Amino acid sequence: MQFVTLDGVCQGPGAPTEDTSDGFALGGWLVPHIDAQFVQQTVAWLELADGLLLGRRTYEAFARDWPQITDPADPYTGRMNALPKYVVSNTLTEATWNPTTVLRGDPATTVAALKAGPGRELQIHGSARLGAALLSAGLVDTLRLVVAPAVIGSGRRLLPHPGAPVGLRLTRHDVTANGLLLLEYETTGPALVGTYEGVDATSTG
Question: Suppose 59 and one of 66, 87, 97, 201 were both cysteines; which one would form an S-S bond, judging by CB atoms 3.0 to 4.6 Å apart?
């Protein structure tokens, strides 16, 4: 599940101080648009997870913040803190947010092995670099996006690196009262291309 602006920025959706790396000072762009429908859908998506798959940067931020949320009415905290965390990193030296397993080595190899095991979804939250790498490697089955009605103009992009072209099929879409687009895609293999030969030649299916 990824939060993203209309121009593709995924950095710091939750607060101006959430992620200020590389001098980013425009965080918090998702917060004004959060509403009950957003919460209901994102909670439902989180309930599908049997584990969280994270990169080091996101893991360290989550490990710092989520254990500090103690409000029993918060709909995310219990799941986020209890789910197994799998951190794809060769540099993480301390894993304090239990239960955590560090996956060292080549990300595609280690994640493929984990994915082949039993269980329901392994969900990537944040971790844009990891998500892009695994998408290019063919290891992402479903892509869920929450698109905020904002253009930020700077900050880390969700899919910044060139990789293997990936085709997607939209399986679900909705829009909340506050203008958030809730999109769910399944991957379909390589992205299709074609040549426009007029309206009569296009598919209507």
Answer: 87
